[in-house]
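the two lines:
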Amino acid sequence: MSHQGLGDFEQIVLLAILQLDGEVYGVPVVDEIERRTGRSVSRSAVYVTLRRLEDKGLISSWMSDPVPERGGKPRRCVKVEPEGLRLLRESRRTMEQMWQGLDPALGDVR
Amino acid sequence: MSGSRPGPRLARALLMRGLPADRRDDVTADLDEVYRRRLEAHGAVRADLWYWREATLFVTRFTFERLRDRRRARARLARREGFRRGALPISLLDVKLGIRRLTAQWGLTLLGGMALTTAMTMGAVVFGVLDAFMGTSIPLDEGDRVVALQAWDGRANARRQISAADYLRWHDRLTSVEDVGAFHTVGRNLITADAPPEPVVVAEMTASGFTLARVPPLLGRPLTSQDEEAGAEPVVVIGYDAWRGRFALDSAVVGRQVRLGRTVHTVVGVMPEGFSFPMNHDFWTPLRLDETPTLRTVDGQGAVFARLTPGASVEQAGAELAALGLTEPEPQPSPLGAARTRVVPYPLAFVDDFAQSPIMLGIIVILASLLLVPPCANLAILVYARSASRLAEFAARHALGASRGRIVSQLFVETFLLAAASGMVALILVRLALGQVAAFLDRQIAGGLPFWFDVTPSLATVLLVTLLALVAATIAGLLPGLQATGRLMKEGLAALGSRTDPRLGRTWTVLVVAQVGFAVAATPTALEMAWGTLRPSTLGPGFPAEEYLTARLELDAEGPGPEDPAEPAPAGSRLEVVLPELVRRLEAEPGIAGATVASALPGTGRWAFLEMEPVNGVDPAQPPSALQEDHLIQLLRVGEDFWPTFELEALSGRLLNSADGLGGQEPIVVNESFLRLVMGGRSPVGHRLRYIRYSSGTGSPPDEDLRWFEIVGVVPDLPASVAYAIAYHSAAPGDLQAPSLAVHVQPGVTGAAGRIREIAAGVDPTLRLEQVRTLDDLYREQAFGNKAGASALLAATLSVLLLSAAGIYALMSFTVQQRRREIGIRAALGAGASRMLVGVFRRTARQLLIGAAVGGSLAFLIDAYVPEETLQTLGGWKVPGVLPATAVFMVVVGLLAALGPARRGLRVDPAEAMRGDG
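prediction for all of em together
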């Protein structure tokens, strides 16, 4: 499937998935973003983005085994596909190139 | 403990409707997971609010996403095909104009909308309930292919019991179905070491039920065919709710032992949340065919089920089953050619005669459409009046090239928009009402509602509401639109310049008179029914009903358990021993002021028609109402301790005692309402009565019941709000079948229900206390149906009242509009304001008075035909003076509605009026 670059929020969601170990599904993804950014994030926006990323072929999903604590309901687990990793790398490279040479001028930005 | 409690049901239903199918389950489960965290941290209210907010955001965002995808797809298509978007379709313009007019005439919109909503809700609720019961699929994998195999009594048109031999033949030989199995429901006391005994509903089911359902257990294993063999160890599979509620989600529950009645079972598996096949079950034990010569498949408590094999249809399976037939002879031969077996979609296995269900639904659709007629007729009057006054506008549009069809379609769209908006509100109300009905039925059906009962309005219900909206728009928009534009088409532009104003015909006047008459006629009865319904909760039961815990008592009819090898006596004679002992132990318990056992609780007994013994050839009773042939009475059989438990004392005569049931004579005690309703205020003590037939189709009583019973005393009404006659008979515990228990718990005592269960299980482990609740709750539930009916009646009456007022307002506005020139000329000639006011008012006042007189006469006839006793039997209560008050109210409302336009008319400037177009 053809697609253009990644949006900011799409990047954040992809990075959150990569940061997590074990069964990665919607709930920990939202928690991870909130923990790392220190801001609350719209849960529905994350889920819509997950679906869009899957439609674009950047992540894939599958259903886990039934989970007793969830009343026997399975989780939809996700993982980043090679195409997603490629786009993330591309985005990072683009951003780094844009930042190059700005350190003296924006030294106190960090 | 929050356990695995899911989020609010309505919010979950919203998610289920609004999310894409492939995301529904996992998104809802994720939200439930976070919800439970928030429940622990912030409490129920904040967690519920959070869930609602999230559900709304999710649905909104996914909807926008879907719309965006669609828009992009369309744009892509347009780019590919070089498609250029043209002008807006003309119908959209109609919609815009319609919305504008509805907003401008907000009063009419509100009134019409309310009336249409009321009518649509009433029709759709009845349809929705039946539809929920008569669905043909269950929420299992390929649930539409699960069927029930039935033995059929063609003579009685009813299900028959199926012998184990026939079941086994079906099981072995049928090829168009697989996973053939059977179940029946039994009640048992669940007894564990750490909790009071609790009555539970158990499915004795063949192992094939689990294969058919295609749902693997969460823990352990399902039942297997080895469990069904004679001599196998008793085992039980439990459901998720039981695992959570009784075993605190203990993962080591498999292998634990629990007692069901007399028998100790080993837990071998736990089923996942939501699994309740075959009906509403949370406990499954093997069905032992060696102990079950006949399957109980007649009373909704059991069925033979199967799954259609790939490619097979219900009809094919039916033909194959008919060919295989039954070996058991029929009690009475069926009519020639009548079916002896049937195959039906599984949910219909528990509905009496499914063959009639489409007809039934059809009748409801027609009745629902008829319900719409009165509000639509009212609305049509208003639309017609407004359309007639817009004739000049229509003429101008016609001259500019608009066809009659365009003008009428605009009127239709206006009304359809109103009806569609009403339909949407009606659907929300239907959802709420279905929720209430479901909650009510859930409490009434042992074990709760069947698992396939879904209270979310089905597609069929949505389609029905859409159809009703179309019917409403046709009656209230299309017809008046056609009529109003008829003359325009004949006269064309001449209508624009015409000096003769359009006239509201005689039909219109008749309709206004009819609606005022209807309001005056129907309101008193509606108010009396409403008051009859509200009266018990307003007045209260007259005694502290909340202090009385009640339950239905049942004894298991099972064989001896391994711990008690003695053969138990039949349940009837065991009751004779068990009940007095239960009452004795309860009364010895601290905190319990009294306990008694009766055939039913006060206000819930069986109904019969009575006859009084003539004295000197004269019937001492006053004649029953015109609608009834005989007086109706409720029967209760009570023990000696009934009177002290309910603190009842005789108003006259005496109470019953334990000697009263002996020696052939059986004196009875009646309530105060008997004295009032049957005896017309005279004392009944010393008179004799007998029961000539029972109500609810049970026919005449057996001969021995036709004996006379002497009335020896009168007691106060219990509950005090009771509005019918009651007769109390003396009963020994052994006489009572399925008796009810009432325990007077002293105020401030907590945990009484658990203690009572413990005491009952101590008396006999197979003695089950079903539906434990306070008498107060019982009365509230009894009033549920009446309340719903009264609310619907009140809403309908209110709609008619308001629409009548609006109709009168429209009539006056139109009359004044018509007579502007005349008023102007008369004012210029020096006529006084009061004379003109009388002139303007005359026609309205005449219509109001005729309407009030017609309605008043009708109400008077209803009043004469439905006297006090019948009204009270129907759930109403006489309200003195309600008829004249309604008539006066309607006339005053009508005059007030006429006042505004009349005053506007008097302010007409004579010069302006004579110069204008009229």
